[in-house]
Amino acid sequence: DTGVSQDPRHKITKRGQNVTFRCDPISEHNRLYWYRQTLGQGPEFLTYFQNEAQLEKSRLLSDRFSAERPKGSFSTLEIQRTEQGDSAMYLCASSLSRGEGDTQYFGPGTRLTVL
Amino acid sequence: GNSVTQMEGPVTLSEEAFLTINCTYTATGYPSLFWYVQYPGEGLQLLLKATKADDKGSNKGFEATYRKETTSFHLEKGSVQVSDSAVYFCALKTGGGNKLTFGTGTQLKVEL
């Protein structure tokens, strides 16, 4: 399977704990995106990388959120001191910056539940 | 700013019925337009796209035409199947940006 993969698929944590999610993009895709989707809503953009550089961050990405893509391949999204409002599906997508650069391919998501 | 408005669901149809899911948008510049589909328990999949006015995107019997004059990108299918039951999301991306802006999604349920 050469699609976007995410790990874990599900995470249950207690309020105040830190969590980290991983995303592996389609190989050779130099762009990587994180989105958040809450129940009954469409995905909302969080942040975007081109290679290892984080080029855009949404206002939704509070100081408790940090994302990295250290070698321009996989990415991690960490949430510190989780709150119940952080409960959502966290989606990762990847794309090329040329050719079909308009098309983002999504992973299956990580569902976070904060108790 | 950019925004996408979709018709509210759920939409319930009988198999072989005609489907229309309305989508209108507000955007600066000239966006690319997309329909994504999310089947139960699965991730978002690109269904079709159109990158300029009057373009028609099509896939798996679904079609949508980029209408600049009405800022719309309505999704249509002539004969739906039970397997089309899913949530459908309309989205846009403006040329200079990289993020997708999504609508709230429309749930489609097709019954025998």
List keywords for this structure.
heterodimer, A: 115 residues, mainly beta, seven-stranded mixed β-sheet, four-stranded antiparallel β-sheet, 11 strands, 0% helix, 49% strand, globular, B: 112 residues, six-stranded mixed β-sheet
Q: Please, could you describe this protein's structure?
A:
The complex is a heterodimer of chains A (about 120) and B (about 110). With about 120 residues, chain A is mainly β. Helix content of chain A is about 0%, strand content about 50%. Chain A contains no helices and 11 strands. In chain A, a hairpin with a 6-residue loop joins strand 4 and strand 5. The radius of gyration of chain A is 13 Å and the shape is globular. By secondary structure, chain B is mainly beta. In chain B, about 0% of the residues lie in helices and about 50% in strands. In chain B, the strands form 3 sheets. In chain B, strands 2, 5, 6, 10, 11 and 12 form a 6-stranded mixed β-sheet that branches. In chain B, strand 5 and strand 6 form a beta hairpin. The mean pLDDT of chain B is about 95. Chains A and B meet through strand 4, strand 5 and strand 10 of A and strand 6, strand 10 and strand 11 of B.
Short description:
The complex is a heterodimer of chains A (about 120) and B (about 110). Chain A has strands at about 5, 10-15, 20-25, 30-35, 45-50, 55, 65-70, 75-80, 90-95, 105, 110-115. Chain A is mostly beta strands and about 120 residues long.
**Protein chain pair with the most extensive contact, residues per chain:** A-B, 24 and 22 residues
Structural class of chain B: mainly beta
Order of helices and strands of chain A: EEEEEEEEEEE
Average pLDDT of chain A, rounded to a whole number, is: 92
* Proportion in β-strands of chain B: over 45%
**Percent helix range of chain A:** under 10%
Please outline the major beta sheet of chain A.
7 strands, mixed
Kindly, what is the distance between the CA atoms of the first and last residues of chain A, rounded to a whole number of angstroms? 33 Å
Question: What Rg of chain A is obtained from the alpha carbons, in whole angstroms?
Answer: 13 Å
Strand content bin of chain A: over 45%
Number of helices of chain A: 0
- What oligomeric arrangement do these chains adopt? heterodimer
Broad shape of chain A: globular
Low-pLDDT sequence parts of chain B: none
